Amino acid sequence: MRKFLLFLPLYLLFCNLHGQNYKFGKVSKEELLEQQHPLEHEANAAVLFREHRTYYHINPQTGFSLVTEVHERVKIYTKDGFEWANKEISYFRNGNDQEKISGVKGVTYNLENGKIREDKLRKDGIFEEEVTDYKLKTTLAMPAVTEGSVIEYRYTLRSPFVTSIDIIPLQYTIPVNRLETRVSIPEFFGFKKHINPKSAVHFPIEESRRNETYRTGTRSSGTDYMVTTYSIEANEIPALKEENYIDYLHNYAAYLQWELEFTKFPNSPYKYFSQTWEEVATTIYKDGGYGKELDKTRFFEDDLDELLQGASTIEEKIARIYDFVKEKIKWDSYLGYRSINGIRTAYKEGEGNVGDINLVLVSMLRYAGINANPVLVSTRNNGIPVYPTRDGFNYVIAGVEAPNEVILLDATDLTAAPGELPKRASNWQGRIIRENGSSTWVNLMPQYQSEETIVMNLKLQENLMLQGKSMKILKGLQAKDHRDKYRSVDEEKYMETLHTNKGNIRITSLEKENEDLPGKEIKETYDFELENGVERINGKIYIKPLLFLAQKENPFKAAERTYPIFLKYPYVTTATVNIMIPEGYRVESIPENFASELNAGEGSFTFVASQSGNFLRIQSVVDFKNIVFNPRDYNALKGFFDFLIEKQTESIVISKI
Amino acid sequence: MKRFFFLSLYFIFLTYSFAQDMETINSKLLQHSDAVIRYEIVEIEVLSADKLRINTGRMVTVLNEEGESFIEAYDFYDDHSKIKKQSAVIYDSRGKEIKKFKKKDFQDRSAVGSGTLISDDRLKYMEYTARDYPYTVVYESEVEKRSTAFIRSWYPVSGYRVSVESSSYSLKNPAGIPLRFKEKNLDSLLVHRENSNLELNYRIENVPAYKKERLSPDFKTFAPQVLVALNRFSLAGVEGEAANWKEFGKWQYEHLLKDKTVLSPEIISRVQALTADAADDLEKARLIYGYVQENTRYISVQLGIGGWEPMSAREVDKVKYGDCKGLTNYTKALLESQGISSHYAVVYGGKSIEDIDPEFASMQGNHVILNIPAEEGDLWLECTSQTDPFNYLGGFTDNRNVLLVKPEGGEIVKTRAYSVEENLQESVSRIYLDTNGAFEAEVVRKSYGVPYGNIYPIARETSQNQELYYKNNWYHLKDLDFEQISFDNDRTRQVFTENLSFKGNRMTSRAGDRILLPLNFIYPYTFNLPLAGERNHPLEISRGRSFEDTFEFFLPAGYAPESIPEGYTLKSDFGNFELTVNLKKKEEVVYIEVKRTYWLNEGCWPAGAFEGFRKFMNRVNSYSNQKAVLVAI
Predict the structure, then answer these.
(1) What is the DSSP letter of A388?
(2) C-alpha Rg value of chain A to the nearest Å
(3) Are strands A330-331 and A351-352 parallel, antiparallel or unpaired?
(4) Of A392 and B192, which is predicted with more confidence?
(5) CA distance B528 to chain A (A)
(6) Which of B216, B299, B303, B317 to substitute to test the interface with A, most A CBs within 10 Å?
(7) Which terminal residue of chain B has fewer beta carbons within 10 Å of its beta carbon, N or C?
(8) 3-state DSSP call for residue B521?
């Protein structure tokens, strides 16, 4: 008896989990009555059920088409969950080939006086839209949705693009209670499945095989072929959480991706597609026209010969060619590792996509005798590919292979110097493809430290006004950041920005050097007067020496961390403040020296204060050699900034003698 | 045909002369500007009450990246309008032609704005990558419209940081359809005009760019413009006639609203039952508004005439969603079913206050709310919100002229304004200090008026986001660790109360053997204003705010105050600030009581007042930021 009692709750739980009916229309009162998600109480909505079926249809006349059927049942808990009641389905068109939506059915369920009331999605709640020439969108606006509603819809998407199966989502930003995904692929297509290894949730995938027969016309004999079905059945998939300081949220989502390995149609030979990164690189080298495009040099030879006159060193040649391409061909904001317009046209027109521009760059560098090669890149928003695939790359830059390093160049970015990349391209690693077809990985993340050095000389006036001179030097990506931010800001607007967040300040004699010269260090100097920069309390004067240079806010505020933390680039920020105290005052106390370290030197902070007569010197150095931190290191990182902020805002105390 | 011939010649002439003179732009026009409109020629021909043709010729020299937004080489179209011609030519800084766009070279896409789910508006635009700055774009287009309810107004200066070398506007009205026009903000400019019943002609030259300045009035309120409207017009196939707001409102009512409030008997009896026990109409209206909030959701769908007329109440009742028009009309229908009269009110919704022009009747506004006339003052309902309290407008629709669309005609009235006193936030904080800088605090804060609407949505956030909200806003309090975050949303009285208790570290700092205690527990609401150079625009604070904060600092055992700051009182045109600091005792425990009363008035002051306002803000900050000194007993 006792045993039985213990068993009972488990049994009920079991019932609850698997006793649901997921057939379309079989929504239960329990589902409608549920007030909050049983596991994630704060969820605004939840996917109660998602069924995704992808398979091939063979039509004797038109051939293959790829069919995807989706059925979702979604519970809306709160008003903030209403956005989940508008389902947007995006699909594609390329010339005459177009994906098509059919079989749309939708129902909203509500509980009314203890009975289930159904409201059907009607035609006037289904909206079709041509977003662009290539992108189409169908929106389902579900009717009669209130807090507590359950909505259910299904649709079928038919695609003529049979060699590419879209990514299948296995996780959303709301919890998913039950997921059933099945993908059936006939032997004519060799697809390999991939799950995202960075996702925290994993699912077993079952495989089964069966034979099917394909008949043509009325003849009774047909062709047998094998169909492989992959299925995932999963329960209680947690919501994907958002956090700041990450590279790209989708890199951490659970999904299923399909890689085409080969096709083998009846009476045709095997056709293989990329399998290893080497082969991906080779295919791109061939299909992307890298061989052909990069050999085209005639159209620029005269210009280049003139440009390179008198350039003796390799560095000089690289710099001249790089600046020349930046100046000559402007980026039209389109990505791609291929040359869309052809590099000759791009050169002539002065406009091109990433492929156009950086392949011209490679070609010119080679013409000048420099060992330059294209480097394939995946931008941040393209994520990090989980298997070798051409789609894993969507961008190309140039790489010059020097004895000890690869100098990366991206001529689409006007503020970058050789070795500097825009944020979009500094993601993961790139694949450099050499002229002989061989390829290898190159690290794209910035490896060197960018520097910010500030020296401020302060003089405290008798009237407690602070008079100061500031000199700032920015190097590397710090300088590039500055250029990106203020490139099209005029002096008047810049002055206003400079005055912001510095208290009651008046800035004069602003001078800037090298602001428009990528790669050169930026030097900025100005004089200032700061009112209310010190505090007088009880006859004593308190000065926070770093003034507005002190960091005020900890960038890490959340209590917990799930994903790795990405800083922008390795950096060293040095702030040195020299203060002169007026005659007739004496120093009562200065902050104590301090040093801290993070992960054995990956980050460090030192703070040194010293006094010599009426002169004080305070120096703060923040040093980050690493930019990616494990979520395990989150608390250490947070604490590191806590101490840094405290120390940087500590006061010097002086008083009248 | 003749007209067209003339126009073409004109364009060629201008293109030629301007292109050659590119380096001779008047230096005044280059100041504070990202682009120069070399010329803009807008020619509108009213062919009939339901057809007009707009020819645009526009030459813009783009000085830098920011200036690209002034090229405006695009036109919108829909089922009732058609782009007949569209072309563009790009010239480099020396006036050399570098690229040509023909009609087919323009990109086509749907023009769904943010917040809109579905719309049939589309646009065709030029996609061009700048090679070098400056460069010049000449854009020409011809658009034919079947909707004449909107006539493109003359708006020669498109925004801040763009100057105008020449801009002309002509409206030809050969059919002699009666028209009205209104000039705005032209007084300070030298305007050439030649107007008759059959034609309007305007031209200005050499208008320098307006500089963008903090806390200045909305650009639209001082931008030069001429509004035009026809007295006989057509809107997406619906014809109309109106010469003033009364007639315009009547037309809107007759053609867009009437008969849209019919409801099924089921819903009427449901509402009947819902309101059966209500004491009066006010209570009934409250219940009905609550019903709408609980049973509908907001979706913006703008298709055809649906962009202007509401979905019928019957339809909204079926699908339980709608846009502002549909949901407002639905609420109106439900009220009507219980004999409560209400009015559809067209408004410009937005954080900055924009009026429907009371003197010029035309299609205006971008949003609809509901007005219920009442003796004790009209009630206003925001029907697109599922969470706002009954009769709450907040900062999106407060204090502005709206058009009431009544059966007997249109009427312009002002929505309710929230006074300085009403926009109140009051807080009481008890802070228990430790010797090492750690503290525990209890905060109770109440928000009223416009601040109420800004804060109450926090109650629906996840607890993690609520914590982050306070950590971000009170970043000066370190290491916050929350023990309690709870809220009380009194929707009837429109008071939102936050009850917080939390721990933190490093509140105080040590200086030798003294402890410094900052008394600025919650920072005052101020603007961080940099020293202004020359200021042209007036200073405007569009909404007043008031704050009453009390901080009680309980000292660590064994410590006593060595000094506490003196109180301060600041009185100015911009507002008042009063700080008192007192030592008090509660059950033998000494505490420092800080009371801070702070009013920021609403108002508009001449440009010269800005420096005074900046000083006022600085004083508020520095007085608030004083410290007490504690010593061991």
Answers:
(1) -
(2) 32
(3) parallel
(4) B192
(5) 7
(6) B299
(7) N
(8) coil
